[in-house]
Amino acid sequence: MIYVDPKTLERVNVWLTPFFDEETQQTIKDLIAFEPETLEESFYKSLEFGTGGMRGIMGVGDNRINKYTLGKNTQGLSNYLKEQFPNQEIKVAIAYDCRHNSKELAKLVADVFSANGIQVYLFSDLRPTPELSFAVKHLDCQCGIVLTASHNPPEYNGYKVYWEDGGQLVPPQDGEIISEINSLQYTDVQFKANESLISYIDSEVDEAFAKASIKNGTFNTQQEAKDNLKIVFTSLHGTSITMVPKVLEQAGYKNVSVVEEQAKPNGDFPTVASPNPEEPEALQMAIDLAIKENADIVIGTDPDCDRLGVALRNSEGGFSILNGNQAMVIKTHFLLEQWKNEGKLNGKQFVASTIVSTPLIRKVAEDFDVIYKEGLTGFKWIAKMINDFPELEHIGGGEESFGYLVGDFVRDKDAVTASLLVCEIAAQRKQNNSSLFDYLQDIHASYGFYQEHLISIVKKGKKGAEEISEMMKNFRENPFAEISGSKIVKMEDYLVGEAINFETNTKDSIDIPNSNVLIYYTKDGSKIAMRPSGTEPKIKFYISVNTESKNGANAKDILQKKMDSIIAFLNK
Questions:
Q1: Could you confirm whether 435 is annotated as catalytic?
Q2: By percentage, how much of the chain surpasses pLDDT 70?
Q3: Domain stop point among 201, 229, 256
Q4: Cα–Cα distance, 37 to 89 (Å, whole number)
Q5: Segments in the chain below pLDDT 70
Q6: % of residues, the chain, pLDDT over 90
């Protein structure tokens, strides 16, 4: 017999009361009888907001995505909105992705908002996440919700909350809302919709978003160059099929081939092991089509269209997939060049990234005399920077995990505009008898060669969460003296907001909100960051190595040896 914690059983018994529907109660009874381990996983805690909102496996229980947990969250959010905007007409925009139950859950969320007297603008069909961020500001809403689990496996869904600036929730606001939610009982949720308060939004917002994307993502590329660029695009069964082809066409890119086998939205993601463009296998069908059609570039997005994967022709004539750091550096360098050429750089602009991304992005920004700002992992922190520094213009911001934002008309990573931007760069380079691959090599030749690598270790469930917590505790309490033969010169502990310089034996405070992240810096310039994922049951290790060698072939060999040595060290 498997032991179930008494506190978990208390939670279970709440769900066996008459307020919950018969199907839910019967499912719980079956878990009690036949799947006590699943019962424990489903009820041992409540779902929490992480770096990308609230995500979880769909099913019954406090630790699952279902109509009751989303209903309770929405009721708490409704109460909070009324407190924050008294005597105002409160408006909320809602979007959803291709996942199972997303449409039904989005309507349920709309019902609860409307039952609380809140005006709801609901997309009638799936839309990209960045369009929801745009819609919040465009429709003058106080809040936005998107039902998505990004690139998580098919059994997941999620609930991302946006505020009136179009950015995701950040502390202390998220904590205040969570406190409001936790103060409620499920019986407090008002599920009975006021249909008169629910309006459906489609073409008006679509066209406004497309127009804004083109305005921010195009840079005087000649039509001949656009016509000469051959593009292969895949939506990986997700929402980008509703917007990326349209934006590319309206921007003048007619030579676009879509991977038809992956064009239809499907929450099972049947053609890929993972619908994540960070995984090379996810773009393989698109690369195969690109080889067949002799295309110049491959672009592919994750299911909710906030992450963009790019594959480009390399010097051998095949295709190489850019990692998130490389793509971010290319896009940022190009934007800075455009701003400089147009005479718009005056010291009042900034670019943004995250503490686990490549250090090269800082070097590029500083070379253009542009302010560089760095935040925790998650695009909500870049959105917060835009909000916190209204006197500065945001040129572009990115993170290593394939997210990028151009300008500030959207306040989340935006694979629609990023797709257009990458095509602009590729078209201009091809017109000048060059390529994106050459552009990246030119950047490295100017600033030094960098290479990054991500190691993700999956630790599922309650036991996995405990193992990850213990690993981070051990790394923190028993810091490395060296990594792969190179001495540790500095350690940053973001949980306590402290940086320790081992060479000078001094400590400095870190002016970034506390988070469970550790970063080691070595004597030879390597950087190793570690953190638990905020949205997946993983612990992640971000490795960055570099060399001052200007010889590409030599640098590649040096970097690979450094990287292999660090990976071997971490795998001991």
A1: no
A2: 99
A3: 201
A4: 46
A5: 1-3, 50-52
A6: 87
In three state form, how does the secondary structure of 322-380 look? CCHHHHHHHHHHHHHHHHHHCCCCCCCEEEEEECCCCCHHHHHHHHCCCEEEEECCCHH
Residue 53 lies in a domain: no
Q: Are 306 and 154 in contact (CB under 8 A)?
A: no
Q: Which of the listed residues 415, 447, 479 is the one where a domain comes to its end?
A: 447
Establish if 52 belongs to a structural domain. no
pLDDT at residue 399, as a whole number:
96
Three-state SS across 87-156?
CCCCEEEEEECCCCCHHHHHHHHHHHHHHCCCEEEEECCCCCHHHHHHHHHHCCCCEEEEECCCCCCCCE
User: Annotated catalytic residue: which of 150, 484, 486, 544?
Assistant: 150
Report whether the peptide linkage leading into residue 172 is cis, meaning its omega lies within 30 degrees of zero.
Answer: yes
* Residue 422 placed within a domain: yes
- The structure tokens listed for 266 are 């499907």
Q: Please report the pLDDT score of residue 52 as a whole number.
A: 61
Alpha helix ranges (H) inside 448-537: 461-477
Task: Say what the pLDDT of residue 465 is.
Answer: 87
Same domain, 7 and 21: yes
pLDDT on residue 102: 97
Encoding tokens for residue 338? 């455009």
> How many Cβ atoms from other residues are within 10 Å of residue 548's Cβ?
10
Do residues 238 and 167 share a domain? no
Closest C-alpha among 359, 334, 512 to residue 428: 334
Could you tell me the residue range of the domain that residue 307 belongs to?
A: 208-447
